[in-house]
Amino acid sequence: MKILKDGVKAPVTFSLNGEDIEGYAEPRTLLSDFLRHELGASGTHVACEHGVCGACTVSVDGKAVRSCLMLAAQAEGKDVQTIEGLSKGDEDFGDLQEAFHQRFALQCGFCTPGMLMTLASLKGTGRSYSEAEIRDALSGNICRCTGYREIVDAALDVLGDQVKA
Amino acid sequence: MKPAPFDLCLAESVADVTAALAEHGEAARILAGGQSLMAMLNMRLTEPQLVIDISGIPDLDRIEVGKDGITVGALVRQAELAAHEEAMAALPIIAEALTHVGHMQTRNRGTVCGSLAHADPSAELPLLLLLLGGHVTLASARGTRQVAASDFLVGMLSTARAPDEMVTHAHFPLPPKGARSGFREISRRHGDFAIVALGCIAQGNSVRLGIGGVADAPVAVDLGDVTPETLPEALNALAWRLGGYDDIHATARYRRELIRRIGRDLILETIA
Ligand SMILES: Cc1cc2nc3c(=O)[nH]c(=O)nc-3n(C[C@H](O)[C@H](O)[C@H](O)COP(=O)(O)OP(=O)(O)OC[C@H]3O[C@@H](n4cnc5c(N)ncnc54)[C@H](O)[C@@H]3O)c2cc1C
Ligand code: FES
Ligand code: FES
Known about the structure:
The structure holds two protein chains of two kinds.
Chain A: E1 2-4, E2 10-16, E3 19-25, H1 31-38, E4 57-60, E5 63-66, E6 79-81, H2 95-102, H3 112-124, H4 131-138, H5 149-159
Parallel strand pairs in A: 2-6
Antiparallel strand pairs in A: 2-3, 4-5, 4-6
Helix pairs in contact in A: 2-5, 3-5, 4-5
Chain B: E1 7-10, H1 14-24, E2 28-31, H2 37-42, E3 50-53, E4 63-65, E5 69-73, H3 78-82, H4 85-90, H5 92-98, H6 104-107, H7 112-118, H8 124-131, E6 135-140, E7 143-148, H9 149-152, E8 153-155, E9 158-159, E10 166-173, E11 180-186, E12 196-203, E13 206-212, E14 219-225, H10 231-242, H11 252-271
The structure holds flavin-adenine dinucleotide and FE2/S2 (inorganic) cluster (2 copies).
């Protein structure tokens, strides 16, 4: 049994978008803050910090989760994917981002990283999703701009007829 | 907001947890899926000195489907139970209820036992444990004990768990053979906490109804044999007995009305 002392920064190592990283975190450091402040991966957004808005959604071991409701220390040894992992660069979008671009699925863009990470976790299963299933998954992500229609359309473009289950 | 400072214990066994709880008591908090506790820490609604992360304990992630019911360990995530075909075929009422427990992203981390230990009055899983007559297993340095849901769920966010105890397992019994079940919930948006949640088990016309979100803990009552004629009065009496509470989501009066209307629909559909 290991005890990490309050106020003391301890090393945390995990795989971030396929690359092994190391940083230092206090026991109370949230995974969202660790990504943004310690690793400089500020694509993950933070708003409510109590699990309601979904802006901070990342993928841990293939599952979409709230990074504001996880301690950095709990990511030790895990496979963490963030929005930075979805495309190779500014000119080379992944298909979900391309669909968002085509469908005008973002306005201010604050919710977008979380939306995309939720959808990326669906894409990871390799199966097709109905509009109802997509809406159910996106109910965990709040957008204050778009009204969701364009987001759902973009998601359907990519997930509507993926390889069948 | 950010949590107040705390020490973090990465437990590797149930004995680690019970030893730490025996030493620190109420100054310690178990961290399971974190979908309630992390929010409370971030908002500084609780400031424990020690947080005990149980996610590294082996063998607590098992789902066992037996003849008499299903047993889940303390690390079984809500999404894992929902994806367990054999368990969900045995207890379809849990499959239905789980779709209402938060969102896919919170079910990926939130545990079944964490929801029971948290005991939110509108939570679906404590309601089902009570409706089905289940129990939890509690472990402490003093030993282990089983506590029936009716004794465990004592009130708003409070349970019969002693400060030095950990929930290691929960057992959901199967309803009697041939019984039918149904679940219905009203919330502002799908995935929000329930304003009123209702579960029903019927053997013929004999009905057991569970109600969450109205009293300060879930309630289950045997209504006996019901008919479309006797049901409204039985539900009305029940609604007045439970009273309900006003909060920002709904008035007590609205909650009572949901028992009368949704309760009637659910029961009539289940016994039909
Ligand atoms: C946006 C959002 C929506 C939600 N909607 C719903 C909903 O509609 N319905 C619903 O029921 N829940 C909802 N939840 C809460 C969710 O279900 C939580 O998963 C659950 O309440 C707690 O489980 P957990 O494993 O996350 O526990 P934690 O958050 O880790 O712990 C919760 C509490 O239980 C204690 N605890 C946890 N495990 C144990 C154990 N094994 N032994 C003793 N004590 C323990 C902790 O010390 C803490 O006090 C929602 C959460 C979010 C963020
Ligand atoms: S910032 Fe994590 S859910 Fe809102
Ligand atoms: S695009 Fe502004 S919040 Fe979604």
